[in-house]
């Protein structure tokens, strides 16, 4: 056999747990970021529920905002917002 058995290989960059953004701080490779329109937002929290990285939290005014240090810019929050209060915009670095 030329190649080792796959079971004997080291894990390398395999992600073995969901919601890993708090460990990996993945926001630095994002290309788009969620922008909140407070006038459209009804503070329902669906964006936070659907966020695969659990990086959206309620602020002191009741609005849900993404922690951009962890946000990957996937756009799921904007897609799930029933009032279209979130839009994804190209991030200028």
From TrEMBL:
Keywords: 4Fe-4S, Iron, Iron-sulfur, Metal-binding, Pyruvate, Repeat
Pfam families: Fer4_21 (PF14697)
GO MF terms, alphabetically ordered: 4 iron, 4 sulfur cluster binding; metal ion binding; oxidoreductase activity, acting on the aldehyde or oxo group of donors, iron-sulfur protein as acceptor
Superkingdom as given in the UniProt entry: Bacteria
PROSITE patterns linked: 4FE4S_FER_1, 4FE4S_FER_2
Gene3D superfamilies hit by this protein: 3.30.70.20
Residue ranges constituting the 4Fe-4S ferredoxin-type domain according to the UniProt record: 32-61, 62-91
InterPro entries membership: 4Fe4S_Fe-S-bd, 4Fe4S_Fe_S_CS, PorD_KorD
Cofactor(s) needed by this chain: [4Fe-4S] cluster
UniProt xrefs under NCBIfam families: PorD_KorD
Name of the protein described by the UniProt record: Pyruvate ferredoxin oxidoreductase delta subunit
